[in-house]
Amino acid sequence: MLSRRKECIAMLLAGGQGSRLKVLTEQTAKPAVPFGGKYRIIDFPLSNCVNSGIDTVGILTQYQPLELNSYIGNGRPWGLNRNFGGAHILPPYSKSKKSEWYKGTANAIYQNIHFIDLFNPEYVLVLSGDHIYKMDYAKMLDFHKEKKADCTIAVIDVPLSEASRFGIMTADKEDKITKFEEKPKKPDSTKASMGIYIFNWKILKSYLIEDEENPKSSNDFGKDVIPKMLADKAKMYAYSFDGYWKDVGTIKSLWEANMDLLDPESGIKIKDSKSRIYARNYASPPSFVSKSAEVENSYIAEGCLIKGKVKNSIIFTGCVIDEYAEVTDSVVMPNTKILSGASVKYSIIGENVLVGGNAKIGGDPKDYLENEWGISVVGKDKAIEAEQTVLPDEII
């Protein structure tokens, strides 16, 4: 056991398949999906850790890990390249001849008990790698200490109509959790779990071992560990968060979160220098916007060539928008080319896509969010032929 210790370390769950993002995660782990012009989704929790003074982060990867592992590297872009602590990639591994994937969120932490014990922390912060938000975890830890809690769960108020999509907490006037339901059909509270937990490590460790020994458990925090702690009358508290937070696990929510960056009233402050979002950025030349271009209320990242019309859109690094091409209310991911005469509306275009001349992607805005697949999506490395049409809810 090392003589030095960390008061609090973070364990970041980044192994989700992200199947609801369809073609966007066929080759890419969900936390590595591009976001906001120059970021990846995982940049947000990693940056939150650094901005909160947490310098030791275990990153638990599983599905399609190559791109995510390469992106994180030694953690230097986030200041997490340290001799003691820093960023550590933690894929599933075999302790015997039997190889085992992470079976659930709790099992993922259980499999890494030895890693956590190396730092002998008093507290463990458990995070999800697929949410967009800016949060000071140090304030949550102060709350946890003040309450002398065994477990603190970050919660955010959601509309009652959406509450059945989340794990819902009921808490008393002192913020002590009295009831927890995972995706209840008839919720009696609007305090939704954000998937952010702080545990006293000794207590969590004992529950993880007990949970692993239970053959009936699904080895999940929300379904198993949290209800068991509550049944045992552990000291569990709800920490209310009133900032911007969005689970970008669907096409609709990913598109909405990108569009929120363009809305000054949305609550997400991407340019706040006091809590910067760090990312691995590769050297690119400045973007060039020609005389023929028209750009309105949009983000244009480095290395782009813009000759056409861009309105209310996010254009990532290295993209080309040709003369007479139009991009409206859309997200265009890195190194995509949209050729002359093409029209892209209410769409997400993946990385390295070629959109042929006079192609049409997306449709009228009047019903673009009528269902989950109202946004057109083109997957990574695809080619849309000249004059091809992609319907408003089509996924290619």
UniProtKB/TrEMBL annotation:
**Its Gene Ontology biological processes?**
glycogen biosynthetic process
User: Can you name the source organism?
Assistant: Qingrenia yutianensis
Q: Which reaction does it catalyse?
A: alpha-D-glucose 1-phosphate + ATP + H(+) = ADP-alpha-D-glucose + diphosphate
Q: What does the record give as EC number?
A: 2.7.7.27
Query: What is the uppermost EC class here?
Result: transferase
Q: What are the UniProt keywords, alphabetically? A: ATP-binding, Carbohydrate metabolism, Glycogen biosynthesis, Glycogen metabolism, Nucleotide-binding, Nucleotidyltransferase, Transferase
Quick one: which residues bind alpha-D-glucose 1-phosphate?
A: Y102, G167, E182, K183, S193
The record's listing under PANTHER family reads: GLUCOSE-1-PHOSPHATE ADENYLYLTRANSFERASE (PTHR43523:SF2), GLUCOSE-1-PHOSPHATE ADENYLYLTRANSFERASE-RELATED (PTHR43523)
A Pfam family this protein belongs to? NTP_transferase
Name of the protein: Glucose-1-phosphate adenylyltransferase
Entry keyword tRNA-binding = no
- InterPro entries in UniProt: ADP-Glc_PPase, ADP_Glu_pyroP_CS, GlgC_bac, GlmU/GlgC-like_hexapep, NTP_transferase_dom, Nucleotide-diphossugar_trans, Trimer_LpxA-like_sf
